[in-house]
């Protein structure tokens, strides 16, 4: 790693590679570009004042990774400092800032700079980019704006009449003290199961609105002792071995979720055993038992969610919200729950990424209009009619069994490989052929058909407005890595750079 640099650049008039966003995805992309060419003309813009993406923004109590940290970290930046096998949000954010420092990425980073729009300029063979700090052109544009960066707030009638406090789990209001309050939590997904047990001791009463119960499994978390950290620091091979072991057994989960789904009821038995042990009341157990296959929605790893729901001062309401009044939340049975604060833990908008409205391709259509509610891309990375645009965490690259960081590093490797080919062959632009994108997505759709994410009997945020699963990668992650290792230029229409007149 090189010496940290804190010298930030100013917005140039033109740059070769522009990365938008500095979370895990943007940092992975930028690091790959610099590894391939340390003198690359690279700029990263980030709308916030620091790197970290979702791990900077989500600061709710108990926020932690639900994937083992040995895998949920960059392969090129191992750390021996993790406190737990499932790292907590503050240390993940600290880790990302240290990666930005120690890899020299800050020299290429402008914070407080939001993308406002970008249009492909066919004549100039570049992107005309508008940012909150001014305009620039970019030959290659990398959209690393995150799938889980825009909080989803349901459109509940009367919400703006509520006299108390309202916030979303992703924009936690730390200035607001919940002590002694009656609090309603809307949603029972991956975020709620982490913060509800943390606040229950403080609140006077908690009302948890559950639309769909989720499968809950034990979180096998433990602290990492000094000896273990010393071994990792002194003998990095041991840490790599642990990472490899976790990677391998996690790939084993894929076999269950995608190929041997008939075995999943056996996994459900483990979840049901935990439910029986932690929730003595049979009536509550019934409402907390999902009616779909485990894995269809994200499996929630927690040891303290179910005991919290079993507390006397916590109520689980299973009907949907009807409206919000000045004093509380009315459920669909007409019952009014008087509360002081409403916390929405209602997730994000991965199938409707706001950045798609900002990008305009060769025919003047935005990416959002091109997708028409159902995102798709070649390898989840490139889209026909949007030359030199590379998506990070694009369609069908999410996982239910392993670490997204592994997928992001694969996408970053593909970007670096594309830049190498463009340089070597003197290409001004690469635009994936529609047929290549169609063929790839036909394969994805087919491969997803029998997986639990498409046929597990639930409705999840993996399905877009047209009912297509445009979120999940259907098979082993090493297959994605194999497909993204080299840049398949034959699947692209290319334009050569103009030779200067002799
Ligand atoms: O959101 P979610 P999240 N009325 O979508 C409910 C990642 N993550 O913020 O199931 C009432 O999981 C919705 O109900 P239903 C992870 O990938 C990662 O918790 O749709 N309820 C659900 O219960 C995760 O999946 C880590 O019926 C409404 C909940 O809100 C993703 O972030 C940690 C509703 C939303 O659950 C999002 O998690 C935390 C409505 N109108 C999160 N709309 C890691 O550690 C939605 N709901 C990596």
List the helices and strands and how they pair.
Blueprint (H helix, E strand, L loop, with lengths): L13 E7 L3 H13 L5 E5 L7 H4 L31 H14 L6 E3 L3 E7 L4 E6 L2 E10 L21 E4 L13 E5 L5 H8 L5 E5 L6 E2 L8 H9 L1 H24 L4 H15 L3 H6 L12 E2 L3 H5 L4 E4 L3 E4 L3 E4 L4 E3 L2 E4 L14 E2 L6 H5 L17 E3 L12 H22 L1 E6 L1 H15 L3 H4 L21 H8 L7 E5 L6
The site of 3-acetylpyridine adenine dinucleotide has 24 residues, from loops.
Give the gist of this structure.
30% of the residues lie in helices and 18% in strands. With 502 residues, the chain is an alpha/beta fold.
3D structure, described in words:
With 502 residues, this protein is an alpha/beta fold. It has a domain at 14-150 and 350-430 and 474-496: FAD/NAD(P)-binding domain. Helix content is 30%, strand content 18%. It has 14 helices and 20 strands. The chain has helices at residues 24-36, 54-57, 89-102, 192-199, 226-234, 236-259, 264-278, 282-287, 305-309, 367-371, 404-425, 434-448, 452-455, 477-484, and strands at 14-20, 42-46, 109-111, 115-121, 126-131, 134-143, 165-168, 182-186, 205-209, 216-217, 300-301, 314-317, 321-324, 328-331, 336-338, 341-344, 359-360, 389-391, 427-432, 492-496. Strands 1, 2, 3, 4, 5, 6, 17 and 18 form an eight-stranded mixed beta sheet that branches. It has a five-stranded parallel beta sheet with strand order 7-16-8-9-12, with no helix packed on it. Strand 5 and strand 6 form a beta hairpin. It is globular, with a radius of gyration of 23 Å.
């Amino acid at each position: 790693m090189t010496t940290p640099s804190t010298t930030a650049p100013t917005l140039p008039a033109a740059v070769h590679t522009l990365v938008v966003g500095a979370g895990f995805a943007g940092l992975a992309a930028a690091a790959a570009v610099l590894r391939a060419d340390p003198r690359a003309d690279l700029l990263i813009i980030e709308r916030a004042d620091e790197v970290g993406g979702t791990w900077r923004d989500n600061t709710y109590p108990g926020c932690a990774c639900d994937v083992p940290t040995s895998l949920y970290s960059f392969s090129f930046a191992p750390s021996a400092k993790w406190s737990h096998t499932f790292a907590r949000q503050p240390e993940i954010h600290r880790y990302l800032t240290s990666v930005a420092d120690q890899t020299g990425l800050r020299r290429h980073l402008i914070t407080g700079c939001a993308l406002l729009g970008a249009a492909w300029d066919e004549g100039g063979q570049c992107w005309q980019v508008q940012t909150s700090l001014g305009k620039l052109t970019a030959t290659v544009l990398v959209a690393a704006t995150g799938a889980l960066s825009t909080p989803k707030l349901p459109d509940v009638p009367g919400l703006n009449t509520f006299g108390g406090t309202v916030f979303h789990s992703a924009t936690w209001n730390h200035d607001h003290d919940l002590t002694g309050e009656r609090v309603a939590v809307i949603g029972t997904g991956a975020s709620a199961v982490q913060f509800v047990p943390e606040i229950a001791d403080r609140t006077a009463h908690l009302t948890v609105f559950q639309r769909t119960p989720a499968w809950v499994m034990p979180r096998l978390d433990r602290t990492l002792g000094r000896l273990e950290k010393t071994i990792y620091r002194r003998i990095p091979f041991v840490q790599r071995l642990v990472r490899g072991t976790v990677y391998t057994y996690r790939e084993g989960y894929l076999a269950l979720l995608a190929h041997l789904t008939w075995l999943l009821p056996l996994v459900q038995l483990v979840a049901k055993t935990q439910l029986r042990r932690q929730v003595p009341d049979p009536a509550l157990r019934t409402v907390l038992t999902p009616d779909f296959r485990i894995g269809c929605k994200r499996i929630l790893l927690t040891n303290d969610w179910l005991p919290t729901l079993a507390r006397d001062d916590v109520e689980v309401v299973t009907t949907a919200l009807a409206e919000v009044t000045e004093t509380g939340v009315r459920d669909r049975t007409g019952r009014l729950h008087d509360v002081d604060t409403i916390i929405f833990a209602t997730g994000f908008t991965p199938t409707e990424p706001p950045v798609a409205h900002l990008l305009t391709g060769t025919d003047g259509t935005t990416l959002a209009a091109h997708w028409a509610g159902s995102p798709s891309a070649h390898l989840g990375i490139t889209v026909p009619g949007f030359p030199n645009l590379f998506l990070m965490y694009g369609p069908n690259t999410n996982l239910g069994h392993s670490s997204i960081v592994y997928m992001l590093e694969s996408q970053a490797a593909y970007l670096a490989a594309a830049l190498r080919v463009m340089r070597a062959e003197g290409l001004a632009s690469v635009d994936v052929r529609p047929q290549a994108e169609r063929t790839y997505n036909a394969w994805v759709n087919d491969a997803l058909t029998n997986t639990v994410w498409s046929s597990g009997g639930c409705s999840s945020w993996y399905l877009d407005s047209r009912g297509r699963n445009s979120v999940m990668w259907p098979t082993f992650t090493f297959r994605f890595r194999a497909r993204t290792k080299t840049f398949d230029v034959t699947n692209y229409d290319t334009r050569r750079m103009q030779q200067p007149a002799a």
